[in-house]
Amino acid sequence: MTDTSRPHVLVCVKRVPGSSGQILLSQDGQSVDTRHVGYTTSPHEECAVEAAVQLAADHDGTATVLTLGPDDAIEQLRDALAMGVTSAVHLTTGEEGSGDAYGPADVAAAIAGLCRQRAEAGTGFDLVLLGNDAADTGDFQVGVRLAYLLGVPVVTGVRSLTLAAGPSGSVVHAVGDGPDGTEEYELPLPAVLTVKEGEISPRYPSIPGRLKAKKAPVDVQPAPAVVDGTGRRRLVLPPETSSSVQILGTGPEAAAALVDVLEQIGVVSR
Fold first, then answer.
1. What does the pLDDT average to over 104-118?
2. Domains delineated in the chain
3. Is the pTM of this model over 0.70?
């Protein structure tokens, strides 16, 4: 893309358990027990979806939403379609819970594979947006790993972004929080940004938008096989050790007993 006209934006979302109720872990401690909770999209990713929709609308472009997850994750894709996203891609892992084995490296590799597939078809993405981190596992790695695989620049923790024309092509202007205050970056496209809550307010889908999203086609493809896995390990607390207390006495009368104890543990000798 040589100017800011008609950018192709990819936004990646994840199906996560709703956090309105009590969160319980599965029996093996490796995932969330979702038997009694609903599902939603991470708050950071809702902001990323809104940013993608705004960019597509402002520059006569397209916004594609992608998720890697179980068959039921199509629900989150339709939520994004109802917000105004142009099209959707589902890298399905099968039944519910089947995506728990995928780690950040696996997800990044799958997204990179789709990006290369689209580039070879002549419909590559100019900008890839992700949430800053996943609401369920807290992974912050996918965006950085994806940028490394694609060989493009990346900025994390972005609160706002705009597209502009630069001397050598389009650039994205990103604003975020750094250790010393607000930081601003200007990156050539293509690029990867991870978005966090802040200045972007997600819209509520309209009723016509939801009706349209129910009928919208979704590009469903099988997710690549797990290679690296999550790398998570269950930590187990050691059993508590019993202890006993011996009262030596009170006042001066305890002095002799204290000396005896100190002699027993080798602190003093007679």
1. 95
2. 8-222 (3.40.50.620)
3. yes
